[in-house]
Amino acid sequence: MKKLVLILGVIFLILTFVGGVYVILNNGEGKHINAGFAAVPGIWTIICFGFYRNFNRK
To answer: 12: which residues sit within 8 A by CB, 6+ positions away?
Structure first.
């Protein structure tokens, strides 16, 4: 379980950066381009790394 949470955290971290770059390259313009492309995976990254830190303390 600990390894799975770490792997998911890394995947979501990569998605956060990819989403941020996508929004920046498109200048945030367009019908459906907004900060959510980076913010939503960023929240899941924080959650996954929080669980991972909690597993390490036990």
So the answer is: 41, 42, 44, 45, 48
